[in-house]
Structures are given as C-alpha cells and as structure tokens.
Amino acid sequence: MSAAASQQPLGRRELIVERAAELLARKGIAGTTVREIGDAAGILSGSLYHQFDSKDAIIDVVMSAYLEDLLERYRVVLEQTDDVTATFHGLVLASLRAIDAHPQATLIYQHEVHYFRVTPRYRYVRVAGERVREVWIGALEAAVSEGVFRGDIPARHLYLLLRDGLWLTVRWFRPTAAYAFDELAADCSRLYYQAFASTRTLRALLDQSN
Predict the structure, then answer these.
(1) Which domains does the chain have, with CATH numbers?
(2) CB–CB of 170/99 below 8 Å?
(3) pTM
C-alpha cells in the first residue's frame, strides 16, 4: 500500500472493525460491549447496527481476514517449493508476517480459544486452526522423513513448541527499523531449524560454518 493510500481516512465500517479489534484484543470478547465499540469509533450504538447486526458479526470480519491471510500465505509457500528446508523457513516467515499484519486478531485468537471452540458460528475458526496444524505437521513430518529433522520427538510436539514460540511473539516483539519482522523470522527459523535438526543436518551446518 502506498503512503498516500495508508493516510486516507477509514470508512465507517473499516473504522468500526479497527476499533473493535483493539478493544477485543485488550478486553476480550466477554469484556467488550457494542456500546464501547461504538464509542471508540465515535458513533452511536444504533448507527453501528446499521453496519453490523451483532458483536459477533464484527468478530467474524476480524478473524476471517486474519485466518484467510495466514492460510493464503501458507498456500503460496507450499506451491513455491517442495524442498523441506525452504518450506520450513517459508512457513516461519509467513506466520510472522501474518502476525505483523493482524496483531489484534492474533491476540484474540489466543485469548478466546475456548469461546471459538464452543460457539457454533465459529466453526470456520476451528477449521482454519486445524488446517494450520495440518500444514505444519505435514511440513515437519516431511523434514523428519527426509532425515533433515530429528525423529526422536513426535512431529506434533515439535509443532506445539514452534507454534507457541512464534505466535507469542505478538505479546512482546516490537519491530524497529534496525530489527523488523523479517529479521525476527530469519532468527527464529535458524533457531528452530538447529533445535529440530538431525545429527546429519547439524554436521552439515558445522561443515558449512568451518
């Protein structure tokens, strides 16, 4: 997006979504009211209902944009290469870029796992979450099968270690001009790659460094 485009004022609907995402990430779904969202957006609750019929309808926009973007980034990575190392690094970068693009939605997802699990209308969130898991488990199992990653730890455990490490960065990482998300992604990729590496892979890495 150009600088001029990014400075254009948000439309009413977009403003509501942006302010709602900020409140929901900070206060949670149960702790955020429609009136608070309206106040944050500078409109009356009645006017808000002309744009969205419920708080859940706003949440749908926030969460679907995030999950669709994340899965699209994964799709691109998977289509670009079948090399397990390149896929691993690509998925790490894609994950962190999606977090960078949707920090509030990332926090909402983390805070509201139970709510999304038990509320019927959020089946799409559960389906997307399962697809994320499938992509990662598939990539990790392929790396184990090819001898790139160690096989003594189940791939599902490697995934959980990596998932929490990547997604929790939204709570503490603040990018700067000198160290942005891509730099963080490169360091995370290298860190996890070395931690998950098989003995053969570690030897190859040592040979390259000598």
Answers:
(1) 1-53 (1.10.10.60), 56-209 (1.10.357.10)
(2) yes
(3) 0.89
